[in-house]
DUF995 domain-containing protein
Amino acid sequence: MLISFPTRRRPTRMASGSFGMSAVSRTAAPCGFLRYRRNRAGRLAVPVPSASLPHGAHPAAPFASDRRISMRALFPSALIAMAIATAALAGAVSPASAAPLTAAEIKAQMEGKTIKTRRFGMAITLNYRANGTVTARAFLGSVDGTWRANGNQVCTTFPRGPAKGTECVTFEKIGPNRYRNSKGVEFTVQ
């Protein structure tokens, strides 16, 4: 069953000489308009441009209904396509971030420098010192802790604050003076 929707109205001259309005239906136009049809479940099917029909075919031709796809059939395909695209983007790793930094590289690039990041909803500045202490400063205050290199990981220990306790992470370089740790936190070294 084809459903026709009026798409626009245009003035026409009536037999009495006055002007009236006539509706142009989407199913009546052979080219350029969209056709709608109800599927077996009674829902509107996805419109198919009538221009995609073979040359000379009329939109109301019996074979035209075979070209329509219901939304219920289209939704799983769209989900699969989005999942594939997301997986492809997630798998695209730049060569600079292929391997985690070693302890020697971390010490050379971060020790004695100011590190800025955002964590727990606030801007944080960290200073890793050569003597094994680290200072974290934020809007609410600062806290001193300790740090040590353990293989290709850096372990920090804070006695109090939002990051209380010991946490060990690896680092990867993602750009000039930009790094990301294994928890997904990005930061810059100045």
